[in-house]
Write a structure and sequence with these properties.
Layout lengths: L15 H25 L9 E6 L5 H9 L3 E7 L2 H13 L5 E5 L12 E7 L8 H11 E12 L5 H9 L3 H13 L3 H10 L6 E4 L4 H6 L1 H6 L11 E7 L1
Parallel strand pairs: 1-2, 1-4, 2-3, 4-5
Antiparallel strand pairs: 5-7, 6-7
Length: 243
């Protein structure tokens, strides 16, 4: 696999409608991830109560899964797109999730107060952030002592065969968006250096893996998903930060 230089600007889609279309197609490959991540939280800490934030929440998939499992956890999804926030809110209302809301916000300047959040989650957001150092500083600022950040994102060194498999199953516009997302993603070592620079110590950055218990809970979803292949664990990386 040849070395890929990072693409600074990912977006080439003409409008939000194209972006949502890309989101829908990509979600068909990664939908099980939201359930896996939500179930894995039980292995990482106690989140029965408290405050949580989902950064770059998109149409709300991850926030919805977490809200279903933790009905006493107060969750806010934050996204820069007003249209996405509106759609996510409609989905939460349809699911009758009273512990979940969404707000238009910028990860570089979060509305949450210092030391106010017990849990930060994010799926596929890191490579979108314009200033990733500032974004990490912000999420760390709002975390309480003892809080957890559990973040998943693509990685630029994902295996060529996995990238090609997904690309070949997408329409041309969405395939281009996916490839640009891969090119905009960070390598694990790059993220470690950024976290070190902003003073975040001892992060865990690993291949996208889950506990056996979580996998067994999701075995039916995994059986139907393209993500059932072990190789797909190297498409994304999991970043865990504890304060």
């Amino acid at each position: 696999m040849e070395k890929r230089e990072r693409l600074e600007e990912e977006f080439e889609l003409e409008d939000e409608s194209e972006a949502f279309a890309e989101y829908d197609f990509i979600t068909s490959f990664i939908a099980v991830n939201y359930s896996l991540m939500a179930d894995e939280l039980a292995k990482l800490g106690n989140f029965e109560e408290g405050v949580a934030v989902d950064l770059a929440s998109g149409l709300g998939d991850l926030a919805i899964e977490v809200a279903k499992r933790y009905p006493k956890l107060r969750i806010t999804g934050v996204d820069i797109s007003g249209k996405a926030v509106q759609k996510a809110g409609e989905r939460a209302k349809k699911e009758e999730l009273d512990n979940l809301d969404f707000e238009v916000g910028d990860v570089h300047k979060l509305s949450q107060k210092d030391n106010s959040v017990d849990l930060v989650v994010s799926h596929g957001g890191i490579h979108h952030w314009k200033d990733v150092s500032r974004a990490f500083s912000e999420l760390y600022r709002v975390m309480k002592p003892g809080a957890l950040a559990y973040l998943s994102d693509l990685r630029r060194d994902a295996p060529d065969e996995i990238i090609k498999e997904i690309e070949q199953n997408l329409p041309p516009v969405q395939a281009k968006g996916f490839i640009n997302s891969i090119r905009a993603a960070y390598l694990p070592d790059e993220l470690r250096k950024i976290l070190e620079t902003v003073g975040i110590k001892n992060p865990s950055i690993t291949d996208q893996t889950f506990s056996r218990e979580t996998i067994m809970k999701n075995k039916e979803l995994l059986r139907k998903s393209a993500m059932r292949s072990a190789n797909f664990s190297k498409l994304s990386q999991i970043v865990i930060i504890r304060k």
